[in-house]
């Protein structure tokens, strides 16, 4: 019975994480880690490591699906990724110097607010308008925005996927599918770095929980990414918005159960 409950929790967490990843480039850690802590009484550090490991393949297969449909900006994605990784370290170091800077609910509220934004004010930018920006300007934007995203993520400790999607669509003027594709491409590398770091410090986690979370997240991310790439911009905005609002509300409910 205990193993069945564990499987149900992991599979359910994987559904939310996979849909969030495939539709919006959302980090699996935002969904999986609070559920593992709340329902399986797992240590937060181990739960985050499992969530990041689940994010690696889910983000990679999502990026591959978006790339296959020509909805991925690899060149500028690599530049942004380098800036994100570097300034995450800078943000983390800055946060360590200041007391009480943690904002645990930041990523949850950001998820819900971004979902509401997609429902009320959908992103209808076209690829044609994206191409009107010069390569040099786009590269500079990628580096500067990557620095900002990395610093905020390091300082706050969460929200990377949501920050990337918000900035790619609202600041850099990316078409929604290309924004998500570029976001999951970056997240696959950042999640791999994070997971490897967690396992190096903590050791190998519970393999049954890890396997269930990874496979469920991978399955649902693949389903979401395939749907997203075939959907019209209007449908994709509504689907992405609905998924983000529901996931944000679900994570808030889990945090409430934990008494946070």
Structure commentary:
With 260 residues, this protein is an all-alpha fold. Helix content is 82%, strand content 0%. The protein contains eleven helices and no strands. The radius of gyration is 17 Å and the shape is globular. The model has no long low-confidence stretch (mean pLDDT 86).
Please give the structural blueprint.
Elements: H1 2-24, H2 29-40, H3 44-68, H4 74-97, H5 106-120, H6 127-130, H7 135-156, H8 160-170, H9 176-202, H10 207-230, H11 233-257
Helix pairs in contact: 1-2, 1-3, 1-10, 1-11, 2-3, 2-11, 3-9, 3-10, 4-7, 4-9, 5-8, 5-11, 7-8, 8-9
Sheet-strand content, in percent, reads under 5%
Assign a percent range to the helix content.
over 70%
The span between the termini is 28 Å
The largest β sheet comes out as: none
The shape, in one word, is globular
- The whole-angstrom Rg is 17 Å
Mean pLDDT: 86
Tell me the number of strands. 0
The helix-and-strand class reads mainly alpha
Number of helical stretches of at least 4 residues = 11
Low-confidence residue ranges: none
Assembly level: single chain
Q: Would you list the SSEs in sequence order as H and E? A: HHHHHHHHHHH
